[in-house]
Amino acid sequence: MVPPQYYLLLAAAIFCIGLFGILTRRNALLFLMSVELMLNAANINLVAFSVYWGNVTGQTLSLFTMALAAAEVAIGIGIILTLYRNFGDVDVTDAASMRW
Amino acid sequence: MTAPAAFAGLTALASPMQMGQLPDWTALAPVLILAVTGLVLLLIDSIDADTTNSALLAGVSTLGAAAALAATAWSLATGVGQDGGAITLFADALVVDGMSLFFTAIFTSVVVMVTIASYDYLRDHKHQGEFYSLVLFAASGMALMASANSLATVLVSLELASLPSYVLVAYLKENRGSVEAGLKYFLIGALSAAVFTFGISLVYAATGSLIFADIAEALSGGEFVGIAGLGVLMVAGGFAFKTASVPFHFWAPEAYEGAPAPVSAFLSSASKAAGFAVAFRVFVEAFPLATIPEGINWVLAFQILAVVTMTLGNFAAATQENVKRMLAYSSIGHAGYALIGLAALSAGGSANGNVLGASMAHLFVYGFMNTGAFLFIAMVERWGVGRTFEDYNGLATQAPVACVAMSVFMFSLAGLPPFGGFFSKYFLFFEAIENGFWWLAAIGALNSVLSLFYYSRVVRAMWFEDPSGSFELGSQPVGLYAAVMIAAVGTVLLLPGFPPVIETAQTVAGTLFA
Amino acid sequence: MVGAFDFVPAIVLLPFFSFLVALFLGKYMPKGGALAGITATAGSLLLSIWTVLTVAGFTGTATTYQQTLYTWAGGMEGTPLPYELTFGLLIDPLSSMMLLIVTLVAFLVHVFSLGYMNDEGETGLPRYYAGLGLFSASMLGFVVADNLLMAFMFFELVGLCSYLLIGFWFREEAPPSAAKKAFLVTRFGDYFFLIGVVAVFATFGTAAFAGDGSFPALAEAALAGEGGGDVNTLFGLDPQAWFTVVGLLVLGGVVGKSAQFPLHTWLPDAMEGPTPVSALIHAATMVAAGVYLVARMYGFYALTPTTLAIIAFVGGFTALFAATMGVVKREIKQVLAYSTISQYGYMMLALGSGGYIAATFHLMTHAFFKALLFLGAGSVIIAMHHNENMWDMGGLKDRMPTTYYTFLAGSLALAGIFPFSGFWSKDEVLYEALVHGLGGSPLLLAAWAMGLLAVFFTGFYTFRMVFLTFHGKPRTDTARNPHGVRWNVKGPLAVLAVLAVVAGFINMVPVAKLTGLEIEFLHDWLAHGPSGLTSEHYSELTHDYANYSVGTLVGGELGTALISGAVSLGLALAGAGLAYSLYNVPEPVEHTDRLGSAKDVLFNNYYQDEYQVWLANDVARGISRGADKFDQGVVDGVVNGISSVSLLSGSRVRRIQTGVVSNYAALLTLGLVALLVILGLQGGWFV
Asked: TM segments (chain C) (predicted)?
C-alpha cells in the first residue's frame, strides 16, 4: 500500500501547479482550469485519506467538490462571456479600470 | 453527506410530532422559507420570462424574506435551539442554536431592505426574476452557513452563498464596471474556494472527520500538527475571503464599487456577517483553544489579520475620492473590528463569550448602518448624481431627509455616541480589554478616530458645501426611500434597543464556549 | 393605602401641566393661561399641606418617604456602567417644608400676576405663564430630588426658566442683556457644580442624599475609619482633603445660584424681569436653591471644617457687603435685590457655623417677608406707572394703605425688629455663629461680627426705603395720583403680611430659653426624619468633625441668647432710627454726598462689575490668546502632522490595489505564505 505521505505530496504538487497557473496565466479560461487543478488536489487528499481513515466521508465530500467545481465553471464561463462582450478579449488583466 | 446521514434526515422528517412540540426540522424554517421563495421567483420567471413586473417580484421576495425574519424572530423569542440545547439535524451536519438564529436575523433583515430598495433600482432592467431569486438563494446559503456543523456543509453552503453573489455583482452585463467587478470577485473567489477546499482536505487528512465535535476531539490527540495547522490556516483563508479580510480582501473594493449598489449593500453586510458566523462556529467548535495543540496558534493569525485589516481598510478609505469605494474600504475596516471577536480570545479567557458576542452585536448593528449607507448610494445613483465627494456637495438642499439618514449612517459607522454603532464598538473594545487584549482595543480606537475623518467628509459635503452644479433629481424612488428609512430607523433604534441585542449575542456566544 | 406620598409626583407635575397648557392653549384662554397656573399651584399647595401634615404625623404616625421612581441609565446586566442614574423622591421634614414654601409663594405670585401683568395689558402672557409654570415645576422637582444628579438637572432647569423670565420683555434693551448675564454668571458656578457631581459619582459611586448607601453616609463612614475602601479619592488626597475639594466644587453652584460673593452680580440686574418673577424666583425660591442644596447635603458638608469655615465667611462677608451697597440705591427693586443677597449671606453664615436649623428658619421667614416686599414693591410700581425711582415717590402711605401696612410689616421683619419673624430667625443665625465662635472657632467670630454689623445697615436701608416711598410729601404728579390696585394684588400681600408677622413664633429660641417652655417647634420638626438627615445628627457631626462646640458669654446659654438678641435688635433700631432722622421728613434730600468718595464706590457696587469685566476681557482674553497659540502651534501641529502622515500612508496603502486581478492573486498567495511562515515557525510545524 502506498503510504499516505505520498498522496499528500502529490496533492501539494498539483495544488502548486494550479497556483502557478493562476499567477502566470492571463487568459481567463486558463485561470479557471488552474482552479480546477487546485480543487482536484483537494480531491486527491480527500479520497486518499478516506481510505486511510476507513470511512467514506472524504470520498463523499469529493463528489460534492466536483459538483461545486462544475457549478463554479458554469458561472465562470458566463462571466467570462460577458467579459469578452465588453472588453473584446478574455485577458483578465484588461479589466483593470477600477483600482486604488 | 453520507447515506446514514441522509437516512437520519428522513427519519427526522418522518418522526411523529410530540405533544405541543414541532418536529426538529422545522427549526430550519428560515432557510426553507428563503429557498422556497427563491424557487417561487424562478417559477414566476419561467411562466412569464420577460416580466418587468417589479412590484410582484420585489413584493414576493420581500414577503419571503420578511417571513423568514419573522420565523427567526419567533424562534429566538421562543427559545428554539436555545432552551433545550442546540437542535442538530442530518447526523450533526446542521445545527440550529441561538447563534445561527441571531445571524439569520441579520441576513434576513438585510435582504428585506435590499429587496425593497431593488424595486426602484431595477425598474428598467430585464431579467429581474433572476436577480431576486439569486438574492434569495444566496441568503439561504448564508443562513445555512450559520447553521453548518460540519466542514462539508460549510463548503457547500459557502459556495451556495458565493456563486449567486458572483452573478449578482456582474448583473449589469452591459456595464463594464459591473462585469469587471464580477470577474475579479469570481476569480479571487474561485482561488479562495480552492484554498479553502484544500484546507478542508488537510484537516480531514489529519483528523479523519468533518463534523466539528469530532475534529476537535481528534485534534486534541496532538497528532499531525503540521498538516492540521496548514489546514486550519487555509480554512481561515476561506473565511477571510468571505469576510473581506486582508490578504483575501482584494476583490472587495472593486466588487462593491462596480456592483449595483443594492448588491454592494447585500454583500458587504450580509455576506460578511455570514463569513463571520461560520468562522466563529468553526474556530470555536472545531478548533477550540482549550484542547487544540499549542502549535496551532490560530489566534495569532487572527490578531495579525485583525490589525492589518482594520488599519489597511481605514487608511485606504481615508484617501478615496469615490464615496462608494470609500464605503468599500470602510467595510474592510469593519471586518477588522469584527475580527477582534476571534483575535481577542484566549484559552480559558473569562470574557471569551462576551468578546465573541460583542463582535456579533457589532455585525448586527453594522448590518443596518452599512446597508443603509449603500442604499443611499443606490438612491444617488438612481438620481444620476456623480459618485465622488464633490458630486455630493449641497445634496442636502435637494434631499434633506435622505441626507439626514445618510448622516446617521456615517456617524454610526464612525462610532459616535448618539447612534447604535457607538455602543457596539464600545462593547467590542471594552470586552477585548476585559479579556486582556488592550492593545487590540487601542488600535481599534485609533482606527475609529481616523475613520471619523472620512465619514465626516460625506456629511460635510452634503450639508456644508455649496453645490458644484445643479441637481436634477427627478422622481422620488419610493422603495429606495423606504429601505433607507428602515435602515436609519433601525440604526437609531439600536441605541435604546442595544441591551437586548448584546445580551442575546453574548448569551448565545457564551453557549459555544460552555 | 393611598397616602399623601403617592401624590408627591403630582405636586411637581401639576405646574408642569399648567406650563403645557399655557404654552399651547394660552392664546385661546381668558387671562392668557393664568387660571391654569393658579389652579395648578393651588392644587400643589393643597397636596404640599397634606404632605407636611403626613410628615408631621397628623394623619397617623410621623413618617418620611424615599422612593426611586425611574432608573434612566446604568444597572443593566452586563454593562460596564457602574452607577445607577435615577430619578427619585425624598420627602423629609426639610423638603416638605420647602415644598410648602415654594407652592405657597408660587400660588400667591400667580394670583398677583393677574394684577401686575393681566390688568396692565401686557402682551405675551401665555409665554409668561408658561415660564412661571415650568419654573414652579422645576423648582419643586429640585426640592423633592433624592440624589445630587437629579438635583443638578432641575437646578439647571430653574436657571433656564430664570433666564427666560428675566428676558420676558425681550424687545427692550436691558432685560435680554440682564438675562444673559444672569445665565452666564450662574452657569460659571454650575460648571464647578457639574464637576462636583461627577466627582461625587467617581468617589462614592452614588449620589443619593439619604439612606445607608448615600454619599454623606459613605463619607462619614470613610472618615470614621469604617469602610474607607469604598470611596475612591483622586489625586492621592486623603479622604478629608478630597471631601473638602468635592464640597467646594459643589459649593460653586451654590454661590452662583444663591448670589453670594463674588458671583452675586447677576441678581441686581435680574430685577429687569417682571416684579412677580423677582418675588418668586429672585427672592423666595430659586435663589434659595443654593442654600437648600447645602442644607440637603449638610451631612456631607458637616464633615469638612474647611468648607464650613469658607461657607460661613463668604456668608458673613456677603451679608455685610451687599447691605452697604443697598444703602445708596435709588430704585426700590435694587434695594430689595441687594437686601436679598445680604439675607442669603446670613443663611450661608448660619450653615457655615453649624446652625442648620437657624439657616432653615431664616430661609423660611425670608421667603415670606421678601416675597411680601417684592410684591409690595410691585404694587407701588403699578401705582407709579412703572417708575421705580424712590426719589419720585413719597407720601404713598395715605393713598395706598393696604400696601403700606403690609410693606411695613415686611420691612420690620427684614430689619429684624421684635417681634416680627425676621427678628427671631436672624437672631438665631447670629446666636449660632456667636456661640460656636466662642466655643473655639475664632474664625466664626469674624464672620459673626460682619453679620452683626450688617444688621445696622439692614435697618438703615430698609427704613430709608420705607420712608422715601411712603412717607413725606409726594414728590411727583404720579405719586400724587397713583394708579389703584385690585384685590388680586392686595390679597397676596395680606396673606404674606400675616406670615411675615407670625412665622417667627414657631421657633422663639430666647423665649424658650427664658421661660423653659417647649415652643421650639422648628427644632422638633427638623429633629425627626430619616436617620442621618436630622438636625441632631448634624450637630453631632459638626461637633465631631469640625470641633464646633458651644461657648457662652456671661449667664450661660440663656444670657448669651439674650445679649445676642438685644445687641442685634439694638443695632437694627439704631439703623432704623438713623433712617428716620434723615429721611422721615416732608422733603428728604440725598445725603449720599456726605459719604465722600465712598459714595462712588458704593454706587458702583465696589466696582464689582468692572473688575469682573476686566477679568473676563483682559485676563481671560490673554489666557485664551495663549491657549490659542498653544492650540494652533502645538495641538494643531501634532494633529495636522498625524493626519497628513495618515493620508500619505493611506495613499501609499491603496496603491497595492493595482486593479490587475493577477497581482491580487499573487499578493493573496504571498500573504498566505507569510502567515504560514509566521505560524509555522511559531508553532514548530517544520521540524
From this structure: 6-26, 33-53, 97-116, 128-145, 151-170, 191-210, 240-256, 277-295, 307-328, 335-357, 363-383, 404-425, 445-470, 491-512, 561-583, 664-685
